[in-house]
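Hey,
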Amino acid sequence: MTVTATNAGSTAGKDVVEIYYTPPYYNGGIEKSEVNLVQFEKTKLLEPQETQKIESSCIYIFDECFGSRNRYSCGGCSDDAD
């Protein structure tokens, strides 16, 4: 996954790109956090109107409730990695 961050302000600065995940909920199942921060990346110092592309690395999310293990990935990672 690629995200483009742009400094739309008039002063140089840094920012943080955040990726969130919402796990599935099944009626009668275990309650979980609705939204989970799974990855973040700081930008470099961006001058006004400067952009930076941020590539996400492999993201693996494990749902460990009662031993179930659901894996989600992006960024070209192998599905068989642990």
